[in-house]
Amino acid sequence: MISENNIKNISKYKTPFYYYDLALLQQTLDVVNAESSKYNYHVHYAFKANANSRIIQTIKSYGLGADCVSGNEVKCAIENGFDSSKIVFAGVGKSDDEINYALEKNIFCFNCESMQELEVINELAAKQNKIASIALRINPNVDAHTHKYITTGLEENKFGINPYEFETVIEKLKTLSNIKLIGLHFHIGSQITDLSPYKKLCTRVNEINSFFLHKGYDLPIINVGGGVGINYHEPDKEAIINFKAYFKVFHDFIELRKNQQLHFELGRAIVAQCGNLISKVLYIKNGINTNFAILDAGMTELIRPALYQAFHKIENISSSSKSIVKYDVVGPICESSDCFGKAVELPETKRGDIIAIRSAGAYGEVMASKYNLRDDVRSYFSE
Length: 383
Ligand code: LLP
Fold this sequence. Notes:
Structural class: alpha/beta
Order of helices and strands: HEHEHEHEHEHEHEHEHEHEEHEEEEE
Radius of gyration: 22 Å
Mean pLDDT: 95
Oligomer: single chain
Bound molecules: ligand LLP
CATH class of the largest domain: Alpha Beta
Strand content: 15-25%
Number of domains: 2
Helix content: 25-40%
Shape: elongated
C-alpha cells in the first residue's frame, strides 16, 4: 500500500520514476537474515535484480554476499564495499577481461558453466600466478514450472554443465593445476512460487553431491541459487515472502555433510516489493470496445510485461472516483507490446492522474533501456 504521506511525497517529483520503500527493504532483509541464520546458511544478493546504489548499500549493510553475472557487477559490488571473499561470479559467457578482473580482486568463487570455461580460467589464473576457486554450475534437469524465458535448469537451457559430462570434467580437472574445485552450484529458474521444484532440486543435489564424494571430491560449498517467487497479485497482503518455509525446505530435504556450507543467491524476493514504478496519465482514449490509458512510462522503464507477459498490479493512486472503468494501460513507445495490462479495472481515470505499477523493484530499473531515445529513468526513496 502506498501511504497518504508517500502519495504527497510522490506528487513532488517529475514522472516517470521508481519509488523505493527502504523501510520495507530493511524489514525484508531482517527476515532473510533471521530465517537463514537459523541454519547458518549464506545468502548472496543477486545484483542483476537491482543495482541502484541506495538499494545495494542497504543490502550491504545487512552483511549479505554478492552474486554477480558480469565484470561490471563484480566491480559495482566491490566499489560498494562488498567483501570480495563473499562475491560469486556466474554467467555462461564470461569474457577474458572479466575473468582477469575477478581474479585480480580474489573473489570467493567462479561458478563455471562449461568445460572450455574451466580451461580458460585455469590459463588466466596461471598467468596471474593464482589458484582460482571454482564451483561447477550444474544443470540438474529440474523443471521450475515458471515462464520459459526464466527457466534455467533444463537440459534444453544454455546454462551449466550436464551430468553426462561429469566423468570428462573430472578427468579434465586433474590436468588443471590453477583451479581448485570447491563446490557445486545450481539455479533452476526465477519466480518460482511453489516450493516443490526445490524439493526435487534437493534430491538431485544429494545424488550429485554423493557422486562427487565418491569420486574423491569432498566439496565444502553447495550453492542452490535463487529464484523464489513473490506475490505480484497481492503485494500488500504478502509484502515479504515466507522465507521461513523457503529455507526450511532446504533444511528438511538437503543432506549436507558437517563440513559443507549451503549458499543461496536471492534477487527478486529481496527487492521486488520495495519498488513501484510511478507514472502519470498523458491521455485517455475511449474506443468502442477498448479504452486506453496512455502513460508517460513504458516498456523502456519496465519491460517485464512486454517480455514475459508478466503481471504487475496497476493502481490509480490519485483518483477518488467511485466509478470503475476498464482500461488497457499502455506506454508511449512505438510497439504494440508496450502494454502494462489489458482491461485493467481502475477508478475512472483522467489526464494527469498518478499510476503506480507495483512490485517493480526487481528486474525493473536495471532492465530499463533508452529505446526511442528515452530519458534515463530516475529513482526516489520514501523518507
Ligand atoms: N542465481 C542465478 C545463477 C541466476 O541466474 C539468477 C537469476 C538468480 C540467482 C536470481 O534469481 P531471483 O532470486 O531473482 O529469481 N528478468 C527476469 C528474471 C531473470 C532471472 C535471471 N537469473 C524477470 O524479470 O523475471
